Amino acid sequence: MKIKFEEMVWDALKKIPKGKVTTYKEIGDYLNTKSYRLIGKIVGKNPYAPKVPCHRVVKSDGTIGGYTHPKGVKRKIELLKEEGIEVKDNKIVDFKDVLFKFDKKDIKGE
DNA sequence: AGCGTGACGAACT
DNA sequence: TAGTTCGCCACGC
Fold first, then answer.
1. Which residues are CB-contacts of A47 (< 8 A; sequence separation ≥ 6)?
2. What pLDDT, in 10s, does the model give residues A49-108?
3. Strand pairing class (A87-88; A91-92)
4. Which nucleotide is nearest to A54 (CA to C1')?
5. DSSP state of A4
6. Cα dihedral A82, A15, A9, A62 sign
7. How far apart are the first and last CA of chain A?
8. Could you identify which of A22, A30, A93, A103 might form a hypothetical disulfide with A86, taking C-beta atoms 3.0 to 4.6 angstroms apart as the criterion?
9. Contact predicate A50/A16, CB 8 Å
10. Beta bridge mates, A2
């Protein structure tokens, strides 16, 4: 059974613990792919919206990045602040401190 | 079956 | 620091 790329992305997002964030790059590395934009697109589709914390995914610079809904970015920041992550000017203050990295060993669907 | 487009980024110059 | 270029998977036509 081969798992679709999207399934792995959503699965990876669900692995992110509360109060932590990850980057598209980390996910791309986790899935061994370079298609960072694909991840954004897939996360944007987000059929598992409440199950997949897409707001915990940020750019490698620590910036919130874009969002399917322009005003959705604002909500993203609010949600992150609720998680205990401080965000300023669309950027995570203690970004590296709250950055969560995946373990390759965690991959089981391959 | 083949071609073309989409997307919440990243890396390079 | 800013601007430009690349790339990947999935899906529509």
1. A10
2. 888 888 999 999 999 998 888 788 898 999 999 999 999 989 999 999 999 999 877 765
3. antiparallel
4. B8
5. P
6. positive
7. 9
8. A93
9. no
10. none
State the SS3 of A45-80: HCCCCCCCCHHHEECCCCECCCCCCCCHHHHHHHHH
Pick out residues 5-44 of chain A having their CB under 7 A from any atom of nucleic acid strand B: 23-25, 28, 35-41, 43-44
pTM: 0.91
Hey, how many other C-beta atoms are within 10 angstroms of the C-beta on A8?
Answer: 20
**Residue from A43, A60, A40 nearest A51 by CA:** A43
Per the annotation, the verdict on A54 as an active-site residue is yes
**If we measure between CA atoms, which residue out of A58, A46, A49, A50 comes closest to residue A20?**
A58
CB-strand contact A4/B, under 7 Å: no
- Check if the beta carbon of residue A30 is closer than 8 Å to that of residue A104: yes
Comparing CA positions, the residue from A98, A46, A44 lying closest to residue A69 is: A44
Tokens 């798992």: give the residue.
Answer: A3
